[in-house]
Specification:
This protein is α/β, with parallel strands linked by helices and 218 residues long. It folds into two domains: 141 residues, HAD superfamily/HAD-like (Rossmann fold, 3-Layer(aba) Sandwich), CATH 3.40.50.1000; 67 residues, DNA polymerase, domain 1 (Orthogonal Bundle), CATH 1.10.150. Helices cover 43% and strands 11% of the residues. The protein has a six-stranded parallel beta sheet. β4, α8 and β5 form a beta-alpha-beta unit. α1 packs across α4. The termini are close together. The structure holds 1,6-di-O-phosphono-beta-D-glucopyranose (B16) and magnesium ion. The site of 1,6-di-O-phosphono-beta-D-glucopyranose has 20 residues, from α3.
């Protein structure tokens, strides 16, 4: 049995920050004179901030100079930071601490693999930072998911071979990135959306410790 590593995505796996991203993007869209819906926000999950703004401008059929683009990226993030300011442990998705604690008690190294540049402060706010041996986020990568860079870097920082890593992901692009990295992909969400994942659970309450133990033993 070789050494295993477990990698968690942040938004949609550990906490539901998608609702705050949505409010901030909606505010910007409205300010620019168009609507932005929850359905459209689905396209933004797991996608980098820059790519999100490109998609938003496509939706609103807006052109932007480089200067405007940069300003809107900053404005969106300032609003997002306001929305997440008061986040606390009550916003952790169900049973995430149970799985993290089980892995830690089993001496399994744990990493975060997120597209967000705000990942570390969010983990601090919800008091989960102490579980993580490595944090790879939007500040450390040059290529966004579905490129495997974020997960390969996380494996490297954990000192674990990519094929011995397990990834929990809620986004299609994230599952693709995990598969491209040759890792075991566990989709957290809906079966028909995450069908490329090796295993799919609607959330962590559906995943027993015995399943996590099987992954460790593989
Ligand atoms: P930020 P994840 C992603 O987080 C979000 O799903 C995505 O909607 C967001 O645009 C991206 O982080 C960047 O976030 O603006 O905070 O850098 O799912 O990869 O944890
Ligand atoms: Mg996600």
């Amino acid at each position: 049995m070789s050494k295993k590593g477990f990698i968690f995505d942040l938004d949609g796996v550990i906490v539901d920050t998608a609702k705050y991203h949505f409010l901030a993007w909606k505010k910007l869209a409205n300010q620019l004179g168009f609507e932005f819906t929850k359905e459209q926000n689905e396209l933004f999950k797991g996608v980098s901030r820059k790519r999100c703004l490109e998609i938003l401008l496509d939706i609103g059929k807006k052109e932007a100079t480089q200067e405007q683009f940069d300003t809107w990226m900053i404005e969106k993030n300032v609003d997002y930071l306001e929305y997440i300011e008061n986040m606390d442990a009550s916003e952790i998705l169900p049973d995430v601490p149970r799985v993290l604690a089980f892995l830690q008690e089993s001496n399994i190294p744990i990493a975060l693999g997120s597209a967000s540049k705000n990942a570390r402060p969010i983990l601090e706010k919800v008091d989960l930072l102490h579980y993580f041996d490595a944090i790879v986020d939007g500040n450390n990568v040059t290529k966004a998911k579905p490129d495997p860079e974020v997960f390969l870097l996380a494996a490297k920082q954990l000192g674990v071979n990519p094929e011995d890593c397990v990834v929990f992901e809620d986004a299609v692009a994230g599952v693709e990135a995990a598969n491209a990295a040759n890792m075991i992909s566990i989709g957290i969400g809906e079966q028909h959306i995450l069908k490329e994942a090796n295993y799919i659970f609607s959330d962590f309450t559906e995943m027993e410790n015995s399943f996590v133990q099987e992954l460790i033993n593989r």
